[in-house]
Amino acid sequence: MVRVSGSGVVVAVLVSLTDLDNAARHEVDAARSGARLAALQGATLTPLVRMLDELAADGCPQARLVAVTTAARETGPSWVRRVAGHWVRSSAATRQAAMRVQTAVGAQARLDPPTLTRLQWRDVTGDEAPLHSPAWSEPPPHDRHVLLCRGPRCNARGADVVAQALTEQLRRAKRLDDGVLLTQTSCLFPCNRAPVVVVHPDGEWLGPVHPEDVPDLAQRLL
Ligand code: FES
User: How many structural domains is the chain composed of?
Assistant: First the structure.
C-alpha cells in the first residue's frame, strides 16, 4: 500500500470498459506501486464507492484517486470526480471520521512516488456535479438497441475486439448513441454461440459474431 502525506492510500480507478479489457496489466502495475485498484464501470473490479466505503471503515485519513484511462474521449475522468463527490455527499452523515478525498488524472496504474508528485491533485468537496441531469431521464431517440455480450465465454472468443470494432464503425457513421444504442452486457445465456449479439426491436439473436463480421453487422444497423 502506497503511503502518501503520512497515511493516505492511492487508488487507481479504471474509467472505461476498454480500460477494463486491460485490467490484468493495470492490476500488475497497481500492485507493483502499492496502489489499490477500483473501477467506475463493470462488475469485475471493486466499484469506486465500495472502495471508498472500505477505506473509510478502515480509518484511512486520505484517499488519492487517480483516474486511469487510455480511452480517446476526455469525459471519462470527470466521472471519477462526480462519483467521488456523490460519495462525499451521501456518506457525510455516517462517516465516523472525515476522510480527505483527492483526484488526479493519469495514463497508467503504475503510480510510483515520482509519478504521484507530478500529478495535479484536486480535493473532492461534495460540490462536484451530481450523478443526475435532466438530459438523462429518457433514452435518446434510437432505431435499434444492440446488446453485445461481454460474458466470460464471449470475451474468450473475441467479444472485446467485436465491441471495439463495432463502436468505432458506429461512431464513424455518427450513429453511436444516436440511432443505435450499443450496450455491453454480462452473459446472455446462449454461450455456445459466443460472441453473442442481440438486436432489438427485431429480436434477432446473432452468433457467433466474429470481428470480420462487424462491417456487415454495422451496415445492417445503419
Ligand atoms: S458469455 Fe456470452 S452468452 Fe454467455
Answer: 2
Q: Is the ipTM of this complex over 0.90?
A: yes
Q: Using most ligand atoms within 8 A of CB, pick from 44, 147, 149 the residue to mutate for ligand 1.
A: 149
The best mutation among 146, 147, 153 to test binding of ligand 1, ranked by most ligand atoms within 8 Å of the C-beta, falls on 153
Between CA 129 and CA 150 the distance in angstroms is: 30
For residue 97, with 0-12 CB atoms within 10 Å meaning exposed, 13-18 middle and 19 or more buried, which class applies? exposed
Digitized pLDDT (tens) for each residue of the chain, 222 residues in all: 344 444 689 999 998 877 887 888 898 989 999 999 999 988 789 999 999 999 999 989 999 999 998 765 667 788 999 999 999 998 877 765 589 999 999 888 888 888 889 999 999 999 999 999 988 898 888 999 999 999 989 999 999 999 999 999 999 998 888 899 999 998 999 999 999 999 999 999 999 999 999 999 999 998
**Which domain, by its residues, includes 91?**
3-123
Instruction: Quote the CA–CA distance of 43 and 66 in Å, as a whole number.
Output: 19
191 lines ligand 1 (CB under 6 A): yes
CATH of the domain at 102: 3.40.50
